[in-house]
Write a structure and sequence with these properties.
The chain is of the alpha/beta class. Helices cover 37% and strands 18% of the residues. The protein has one domain: Alpha-Beta Barrel (Anaerobic Ribonucleotide-triphosphate Reductase Large Chain), CATH 3.20.70.20. Helix 4 packs across helix 11, helix 5 runs antiparallel to helix 6 and helix 5 packs parallel to helix 7.
Length: 405
């Protein structure tokens, strides 16, 4: 396992923001030093703010965010997340593409749904529009790595792009790269129980060690430590492939029957973890960030519908999914609706980070040159324009399913 990120959370409206930003940077670097002394690799330091619409206007948004990006980088933060466009201010969605164009290391999101009101069809349309617009910023469509649409994601989630802060509190949390813990845990395990226990034991021991360092630094800095997101995030090599971990449980291939059960087993194991939980703590299936998932895009049995199905039991949603370059905004909308509907019905966080690749069609191979990507084939996309009652609705109310037994 590695530490994917020490993610710090801040509020640019704080009257002492510059001083607090320096304190956060000092904290993050002190934690990093402490973790590395214990043999841990820390990949990145990241900074996340409250929703950008709370501290910018349409007139100053680019200047403020580019200035903040520069300040964050000068203090050692590799990436900056400026939080989501909110359902209460739909005009903010129209600013997202401009922010992405003006920055290089800024991540941003858009909310899709409200727990009580349901799916906002205006937000769905706006997020789909961002995805198609962002795909044209560079010839390879890579900018969509920095945008996701999301539903029911809580503040202080340390994984990007979904990370954002809330209120006046300054805080930090740890995002863990932990797919290899699932591989090691279930390797040679005689049954599911033994594999689960081995995986959790490794994670809990790691959390105990890291917590001592994190909490000591938190106390000294007067900054809140929110906890761990032990989502089974992969690295694009077989030794850290969540796809490999799932297949090692006994399914012949991802997409075959049994995939859902394997995913549910790993997710249920994470639920039992005895550590301070924050964020997803779920199963991540980022197609282009995982060697096995990327390879399975060559199979007709591994589809977007399979990814959506797995999201129902454990996942964080659809992530780094390569799509045909000529996909339309109207065709993306129903997938975002499905993500939001699952999230509302099951009351769980889900995201959609979709990557149309200009010039490519289903079955073509991507050609990214990025250390955290493994190239795969553009996935087929069965969708059309929404019509009927759905097309006439501003809000689609979907209540959480309540147990009646």
């Amino acid at each position: 396992m590695k530490i994917r990120s020490i993610t710090c959370f801040c509020n640019p409206l704080d009257k002492d923001f510059e001083s607090m930003l320096n304190r956060l940077a000092t904290l993050a670097n002190s934690c990093k030093e402490g973790f590395e002394k214990k043999g841990w690799e820390v990949q990145t330091l990241r900074l996340a703010t409250i929703p950008f619409g709370q501290y910018t206007t349409a007139q100053n948004v680019i200047q403020k965010i580019t200035n903040l990006e520069s300040s964050a980088q000068a203090l050692g933060f590799t990436y900056l997340s400026v939080g989501p466009a909110r359902l209460s201010t739909l005009e903010d969605y129209g600013l997202i593409t401009g922010i992405l164009k003006a920055t290089r290391n800024v991540f941003i999101t858009g909310m899709l749904a409200h727990p009580q009101r349901g799916i906002s069809m205006q937000a769905v349309k706006a997020c789909a529009r961002v995805i198609t617009e962002a795909a044209t910023i560079t010839p390879d469509g890579f900018t969509n790595l920095r945008f996701c649409a999301m539903s029911h994601v809580q503040p202080f989630t340390p994984f990007f792009p979904a990370a954002y802060s809330y209120g006046t509190q300054f805080a930090f949390a740890l995002a863990m790269e932990a797919a290899d813990a699932a591989i090691d845990g279930f390797k040679d395990a005689k049954d599911i129980s033994e594999g689960r226990n081995k995986m959790l034991s490794h994670m809990e021991d790691s959390a105990d060690e890291l917590s001592k360092i994190a909490k000591l630094n938190a106390r000294e800095a007067g900054i809140s430590f929110k906890g761990f997101d032990f989502s089974l995030a992969p690295f694009p090599e077989d030794w850290c492939s969540i796809g490999c971990a799932l297949e090692n449980l006994g399914i012949p291939q991802l997409g075959f029957m049994g995939t859902l059960t394997a995913a549910a087993i790993l997710a249920e194991a994470l639920d039992q973890g005895n550590w301070q939980h924050v964020g997803f703590n779920g199963l991540m299936l980022p197609v282009l960030e995982d060697s096995t998932l990327a390879a399975r895009t060559s199979s007709e049995h591994f589809t977007i519908k399979d990814l959506l199905m797995v999201s129902a039991v454990c996942g964080t949603g659809l992530d780094t999914v390569p799509l045909p370059g000529d996909i339309s905004t109207e065709e993306i909308e129903p997938l975002l609706m499905d993500i939001a509907a699952l999230s509302l019905r099951l009351r769980k966080p889900l995201t959609a980070r979709l990557m149309p690749v200009p010039g490519l069609k289903a079955g073509d191979m991507t050609a990214y040159n990025f250390e955290f990507f493994k190239n795969g084939k553009v996935m087929d996309y069965p969708a059309g324009k929404i019509g009927g009652a759905l097309a006439q609705s501003d809000w689609v109310k979907i209540r959480k399913r309540e147990a009646n037994f």
